[in-house]
Amino acid sequence: MNIEADGKLQEVIPFKVGFRRIEIKDSEYIVNGKPLRLFYFNGQPIKLKGVNIHETIETGHYITPEQMRRNFELMKLNNINSVRLSHYPQDRKFYEMCDEYGLYVYDEANIESHGLYYTIYQDDMRKGAAGHEDGSKKGTLGHNPDFLESHLSRIRNMFERNKNYASVTIWSLGNEAGNGYNFYNGYALLKDLDASLMSRPVCYERALEEWNTDMVVPQYPSAASFEYYGKNGRGVESADNRPYIPSEYSHAMGNSNGNLYDQWKHVYQYPNLQGGYIWEWIDHAVKIKDKNGKPFWAYGGDFGKDQPSDGNFVADGIVNPNQDPHPAMAEVKYVHQNVGFEAVDARQGQFKVINRFYFTDLFKYKIVYKIFEGSKKLKEGTIPLSLAPQQSAMINIPFGYFKEKPGVEYFVNFEVITKEAEPLVPAGHQIAHEQFELPAQQARPMYASGSNPLLNISESADHVSVTSSKLAFVFDKNKGVVSSYKVDGMEYFMDNFGVQPNFWRAPVDNDYGNGAPKRLQVWKESSRNFKVAAVKATKKDHLVLLSVNYELAAGNNYLVDYKIYPTGIVNASITFTSTTAEEAKAELTAEAREATQSESAERDRRRRESSTLEVPRIGIRFRLPVAMDQVQYLGRGPEENYLDRQKGTLVGLYKTTAEAMYYPYVRPQENGHHTDTRWVALNMTNGKGLLILADQTIGFNALRNSVEDFDSQESDADYQWRNMSPEELANKDYTAAKDVLRKQTHEYDIIPRDFVEVCVDMKQSGVAGYNSWGARPEPEYSIFANQEYKWGFTLIPVSNMSDITNRTKYRY
Asked: What pLDDT is attached to residue 586?
C-alpha cells in the first residue's frame, strides 16, 4: 500500500499476498446415501497435521521472533503442517512467518466461557448472565443476547485484522463457550464478511453437528470415534456429512500421546477424516530458581502459598518449556509422514510406496533402503522414483542372496531424505521412515556349557547359595531377593539389591487422570510386600535349578525358575499366575500349594479383588554398580517408547548411558522405557558388564534412579491442592489426597544415584493419551491380571562387544 500527499509518495507499507482456493464441497464418495463433503485446498482434499499453540516460553510470556521461528522449525522438521491458535489470535509476526514457511492457520476468536458450561435456557436466555444460576446449572453466555456484541466484536476484530494473510485457512468462533444465539449470529457474520474474499470454513467445536460449523471439530475422540465417523460420515442421522477434524486430541500431558498411530491409521483410511490438532505444542512452565539458586521449571502451585492453580495440568505440550521435543515427537513425526510404505511380499523384496503429499512429486526426495542382519548392515541402496501426489507404486528391493543364520533376525529399513534444503528443513533431513522384519528367522541353538567347575548347593534358614570356584549366587529367603551374583570375583548387584518382583511404575500424568495410582495400589504393595512361599534347589546334570514361588499381595503367585550354569550364566523363566486361577490348577509345587492354602480365605478375597484390575507392568528389577552405566541394546530406540507409542522408533543397535536415558518431564514420572528389546548390556568403560538376553522380547529401563524417585507419592513434597475455597484450605484432607492427587515435585527432586537401577519387563502397559482425565490404555496395550503370562531372560557376564555378539546366538 502506498500513501501519497499532494501527489508525492510519503510511505510504502508492504504486505505479502498469496493466492489459493479454499472450499468445502461434495465429493464422489457416498456414505449412508449422502455424499461426503470434504475440505479442499487448491483442489485437493488435504489432511491437516496440526497442533494447538499458546504463547509461552520457559523465560516468560513474551516470545521472541527467534523463539517463534524455532517453533516453526520444529514443526516443519516433524511433519506438522498446521497450527490452531488456541484460543486467541497471535502476534502479526506469527502470521507473517506462517505465510513464509507454509503452515495452514486455524485462526480463533478470543472467546471462552467454559466455567459457565453449556446449558441453553429456552425459557429465559438471560439466565446465562454472570451471577445467575439455576440450581447447579450455569447458563451459556453464548445463548444470552446481553453478550451478543461481546461475541461479535471479537469475531469481527479477528477477521478484519487477519483476513489478508495467505496462511489463514480456517476461522474458529472461539473455544468451549457453549452454543446458541450469539454463535449462530457469529457464524453468519463471518460467512458474510468472508464471502467476497476466500469464503474460508467457519468452525466451532461446541456446535457439534449443528448447522453453524462447516466441519465437525470435536475434542478428544478415541481411535474408535475416528473410525465410527469415517465409516458413517456423521454421528447424527439428520446431519450432513462433513469433514471430521478434531480441534483437540491426543492430550500431551507428561509422558503421553499413546494411540496416535491407531487414530491416524483411520485418518489415512477414510477420506472424510482430514486430520486433527494435538493438544498442545509446548509445556507451560517458567524457569525460576530454587532456594539454592538452581534453575527449574515452575508450574501452577509454585507462585505463592495456597494460591488457586491447576498444578502441572498445563504442562501438556509435545515440547518442553525450552523447546526440547518430548520423546513422543518421534511418534508425531511418524504418523504425520508424507510417504508411506506397505509390505506386499517382504521376503521377495516387494513393497508399495505411497505418496501422501498433495502437491509434491517424490522425485524431490531420495529413498534409501537398508538391509540388516540383526544390528549389522548388510546392504544399502537408493531407489530412484518419480511418483505423483496421492499415487502409489510398487518397488523391488534387490536383496540378492544371503545365508540365513540361526537365531538372527533380518530387517529392511526405508528412509526418505530431502535432496535440497526447504524452508526451515535442511538437505539430508529424513522426512519418513519405515521398518519391516523379514520372515527369515531360524531358531537359535541351545547353549551347552561344560560341567566344570562343579556347582554346589548350600541352604540355611535364611539363604540358598549356589557356589563354585567361579560363581556365588545367593538367594535371600526372608527378603525374596537375589542378594548376591558374583562371577569371577566381580559382584554385579549393588548393596544386595538383586533380582526381585516388580509390578509398579511411577505414575504418569494419565495414570493419575484415570485413577490408577489408587485403583492399582495393590501392585505397588505386591512389589514390596511379596512373600516367599517356597524355595527349592536341585541339581540336574551339571546345572542347578532354583525355583522360587512368591505369594503376591494381589493374591496370586509369581514363579521364578532359575537355571544356573557352571559358567555363571543364569536363565530366569517366569510365570505370572492368573488372579482367577484356582490354587490346584496353578503351576505350583506341592510345597507351594500347602503353603498358600494356609491363608486361602484371605488370599481368595485379595485375588477376587485383583481379578478385574490391570497390572502396570510385569517384570523384575535389580541394581548394578554405577560404574556399569554404559548401555547398549538391540531394540526400539533411540527415543523412549511404550506399547501404545512405538511406531516412531525402529529396532536397531543403540549406545547411550544410564544418565542420558532419563527424560526430564516438568513433573517427574515414569520415563526411559524401551520396548521390543532383544538384548540389553550394561558395561563399564572397559567393556566388562552384564548382558540381559530376552527369551523373546522384553521392555527395559536403565536409569540412575529408582522407581520410587519418580513416584511423587514417595516424595516429601506437598500435594497439588488445586482451586480451593477458604473452606477447602482450612480442611485439607491428606488421607483422601493420598494416591489421588499428584505431589508438587520438580526436576530438582531427581538427583542421580550411585547405582543403575534396571527394570526388565515382560511388558509395561501403555501410557494412554486420548485425554488426561479418565482415558486408560486401550485393552491391547493393557496387562490384565486375570490371565497367565510366561516370559524369561538370561543374565550373562560379558567382557566386550565380541562377547555380546557370541552370547546372543544361543538359547539358555
From this structure: 46
One-letter amino acid for residue 371 of the chain: I
Look up residue 783 and give its three cell numbers. Answer: 496387562
- Grid coordinates belonging to 567: 559358567
- The 3-state DSSP class for residue 82 equals strand
Strand partners, 23: 40
Residue 395 main-chain phi, psi, to 5 deg: -130, 155
280 labelled catalytic: no
Q: What is the pLDDT of residue 294?
A: 87
Cβ atoms of 507 and 669 within 8 Å: the answer is: yes
Q: Which of 337, 331, 335 is nearest to 355 (CA)?
A: 337
**Residue 387 in contact with residue 410, Cβ under 8 Å?**
no
| From 205, 248, 280, 583, the catalytic residue | 248
pTM of the entire structure? 0.93
How many contiguous H segments (helices) and E segments (strands) does the chain have?
16, 38
Cα 246 from Cα 249, distance rounded (Å): 6
* pLDDT tens-digit series, residues 370-409: 999 988 999 999 999 999 999 999 999 988 767 788 888 9
pLDDT greater than 70 at residue 597: no
C-beta separation of 107 from 159 below 8 A: no
Q: What gap in Å lies between CA 514 and CA 768, rounded to an integer?
A: 10
Helix axes 65-77, 92-101, angle to 10 degrees: 40
Q: How far apart are the C-alpha atoms of 770 and 252, rounded to whole Å?
A: 9
Query: Residue 603 is inside which H or E element, if any?
Result: helix 600-610
How far is 358 from 365, CA to CA, in rounded Å? 15
In the DSSP assignment, the letter for residue 42 is T
**Owner of C-alpha cell 517382504:** 346
Per-residue pLDDT at 133: 63
Task: List the one residue out of 630, 638, 659, 566 whose CA is nearest residue 800.
Answer: 630
CA distance 350 to 633: 29
> Residue 17 — very low, low, confident or very high, per pLDDT cuts 50/70/90?
confident
Average pLDDT of the segment spanning 261-269: 98
Pairing of strands 543-551, 650-657: unpaired
Q: Residue 592 has what pLDDT?
A: 46
Of 383-387, 436-440, 597-601, 724-728, least confident by mean pLDDT is 597-601
Q: In angstroms, rounded to a whole number, what is the distance separating the alpha carbons of residues 671 and 669?
A: 6
Cβ atoms of 742 and 512 within 8 Å: the answer is yes
Running DSSP on this structure, what letter comes out for residue 310? -
| C-beta pairs of 382-386 under 8 Å, 24+ apart in sequence | 385/353, 386/361, 386/362
Q: In sequence order, what are the beta bridge partners of 372? A: 377, 411
Q: Which one is catalytic: 108, 176, 434, 670? A: 176
670 is catalytic: no
CA distances to 173, 504, 584, 785 from 614, in Å: 41, 11, 24, 5
From 98-107, 332-341, 381-390, 403-412, the region with the lowest mean pLDDT = 403-412
Long-range contacts of range 444-447, CB-CB < 8 Å, 24 or more positions apart? 444/406, 444/407, 444/809, 444/810, 444/811, 445/406, 445/407, 445/809, 445/810, 445/811, 446/810, 446/811, 446/812, 447/565, 447/569, 447/810, 447/811, 447/812
Question: Smallest Cα–Cα separation from 219: which of 190, 182, 246?
Answer: 246
Strand positions, DSSP E, 374-442: 376-383, 392-396, 410-418, 430-438
Q: Which residues contact 183 (CB under 8 A, 6 or more apart)?
A: 142, 151, 173, 174, 177, 204, 206, 207, 212
